Amino acid sequence: MLVLGIESSCDETGVALYDSAAGLLSHALYSQVAMHAEYGGVVPELASRDHIRRVVPLLREALSNGGRSLDDVDAIAYTRGPGLSGALLVGCAFAEALAVALDKPTIPVHHLEGHLLSPLLSATPPTFPFVALLVSGGHTQLMKVTGVGQYELLGETLDDAAGEAFDKSGKLLGLPYPGGALLSKLAELGQREAYKLPRPMLHSGDLSFSFSGLKTAVLTLVREQGEPLTDVFKANAARAFQEAIVEVLVKKSLKALKQTGLKQLVVAGGVG
Q: Judging by DSSP bridges, how do beta strands 23-31 and 12-19 pair with one another?
């Protein structure tokens, strides 16, 4: 079975061809990072309009690289949410219209389920059951996964997601958009334990997360430092921030394994 996949949930347009027997045949991706950098974050209306411009050329690219035609497609999958409503609408409308024209079925896919099951595409895919740590820009969750469509939420963030905290903290440190990715790279240059930031909910009785307080701690650190922020300070602060988040994620994940009795942890999501 050959499935055409379309992703348009935020600031990237993605098209892929997946064969149930041969695996991933091709994929084409366009990122809008450069366009949104001017505004310091994703502008939903601009994102939607750019998806419209990119989806057809990317479809042609994916088909060409995969050596297939639209006549070979058996079904069309697309991201149905969560995400930016306008951006999602572009992918949904395009997929449904194409499916009507080709007389093919559509498969609306939940964004987070796509993250959860993406490790199954790897060269050494995990086997069910497993605990999944889902860390993306908008979500931080621990899930017990016993099969396709069989998920149990063990814990999630009560406020900011880890990726959101990365981006906002990067902005506090004066880093350009996207701040999270740049913060992570900058952390590699920082001195360990130069600063000590809190580990929110690390010792709580459940598997919930909270990162808004950590973001506030970075803001306090920046204010205490005062302008101008030196490169050394930024690197040390970035490392302290990243170490705090990583420690919470790791220890909560180990706790989830112990609680469920499972031995396998799978990390998914763009931030993961």
A: antiparallel
Alpha-carbon distances of 252 from 55, 121, 144, 258, rounded to whole Å: 39, 25, 13, 10
**C-alpha Rg value of the chain to the nearest Å:** 20
Exposure letters 60-90 (e unless 16+ CB within 10 A, then b): ebbbeebebeeeebebbbbbbeebbebbbeb
Could you tell me which residues are beta bridge partners of residue 110?
A: 81
Contact indicator for 110, 92 with CB cutoff of 8 Å: no
Partners of 4 in beta bridges: 17, 76
Residues 6+ apart with CB under 8 A from 224: none
Output the pTM of the full model.
0.88
Give the separation between CA 139 and CA 198, rounded to whole angstroms.
Answer: 20
pLDDT digits (tens, 9 = 90+) for 207-235: 999 998 999 999 999 999 998 999 999 99
